[in-house]
Fold each of these.
Amino acid sequence: MEEKIYKLMCGNGALNIAVGIAVMVTGIVSGVLLIVGGAKLLAGKNRILF
């Protein structure tokens, strides 16, 4: 019984680490994309004609 719990905790810990890394990568990529998009909008605001 104790070995089964140990294996379950080990697998759950590995899953938590994998999900944490995926969330960090997704956050970094989306942040970079937002910064690049905002910079393009600010750079092109002088060419807007109303």
Amino acid sequence: MNNIIYLDAAASALKPEVVINAETKFLRESYANAGRGICARASNVDNMIANARAHVAKFINAKPEQVVFTAGTTDGMNRITRIINDKVCGAGLKNKTVMVSDLDHHSARLPFELLYDSDSCNIVLCPMDAQYNLMCSDMPYADVFVITAMSNVMGIPQDVAGLVAAARKKNPDVITVVDAAQYVVHSEIDVQKWDCDFMCFSAHKIGADTGLGIMYIKNPERWISPDKFGGGMISKITGSATEHDACFQWENAPAKFEAGTLPLTQIIGLPVAIDYLSANRPDLNLIKYLYDRLSENHRIKIITPRDSTLLTFYVPDMHILDFGASVGARGVCLRVGNMCASWIHRALGLNGTARISVGAWNTMDDVVRAADIIENIVG
């Protein structure tokens, strides 16, 4: 296993020792449930969770009450769809227009596409330029705008603040939703500057554990009712004990959006991962090296620009799964397929691609060896 070259950071980051140690120490020495007890140990965990939330808030320039812990970006995007559809527009998104784009990951676009399929909303596309970047000009009217801050196929940061502002010129009341799952690894997030209504990212992309994500809500008290129900999010129940006429009073945000037991161990590791990422961003010179070297091979077609955060390519006369199996057998871990981003592949006229992405653990030796293997396979 030590000979494996892991070049699939965009799928999930390897975990730094400091994160592993923080989670292990918590499990061994401090574990208790949060929000469920008043003993010293439980109170200590409450403080640890509060400190983690404050750490995330500082990381994205938000307030702690605007930070909701979720199971990941996919969970967050689905929850945002439900919150918007069920709680805001009266009849839901019926006769409302949702703007998506061909950069979107399945988790960002599919929840709204499924509403469209059931005639519960209208769908329009945000225009893209010749380089497959979202355009602020010629933008259609929308009631909801889903923005992919960085495509997991193209790897270029989008002008989120400009896109939000352009959408608001068309409709001052537009609800903006940002998928920052890929963006967060490479660039600082400032939700105040973006002025978005919602934003999501996943912990495992930045070196924290799986099963944890962040959902930022600009105005959490605007969304009066939560979308999930269970322990810890109700402050009072009034009404008859025998009749079905109970009235529920929700806790204030973020508690009302966090029903049930939180992923405590993962949350404890998150601040450590954030600090590690802030000091150890991936070295994108490794991607530039691969671009310069592999672009010289006439059999390899690269679709990402040299300044991308990743390298996406294909070999026209080789099935992408055959290519992936060949490099995998030689110890190179990279992603092949449609990256759960079917729409951009359709726009590119491709069924699938190969993607190389690097993390802080990768070295020049890794990419030199990977390039040797790829060139040997491709010929």
